[in-house]
Write a structure and sequence with these properties.
With 114 residues, the chain is mostly beta strands. The protein contains no helices and 10 strands.
Length: 114
């Protein structure tokens, strides 16, 4: 089963920004509704943002206006641009199809702290 590979996480101060990337070898991501999820420490994994196959996007209320999901079909990649980061955004971030057709990757850790 194909597995996403996420990257781009790190330590950032409150108010900072990061861009996460996701690639899935052997899969044509533009065919699927793709999403970013996150799992904060000690909490359940939650849906953050979705980009549908027609490029319509949808966001969790907690990130609306701060995060932008996009895709680059030439690179077969999905991105999450995160602005105005808050401590509550600290989590391991994962990408997957909305149907969870892929096994979960290792994710990428985002830590927002001063």
């Amino acid at each position: 089963q194909a597995q996403p590979v996420e990257s781009g996480g790190g330590l950032v101060q409150p108010g900072g920004s990061l861009t996460l990337s996701c690639v899935v070898s052997g899969s044509i991501l533009r065919l699927y509704d793709m999403a970013w999820y996150r799992q904060p420490p000690g909490k359940e994994r939650e849906l953050v943002a979705t980009i549908f196959s027609n490029d319509y996007t949808n966001y969790a209320d907690s990130v609306k206006g701060r995060f932008t999901i996009s895709r680059d079909n030439t690179k077969n990649a999905v991105y999450l641009r995160m602005l105005s980061l808050e401590s509550e955004d600290t989590a391991v971030y994962y990408c997957n199809a909305r149907t969870l057709r892929y096994s979960w990757g290792k994710g990428t850790l985002v830590t927002v702290s001063s």
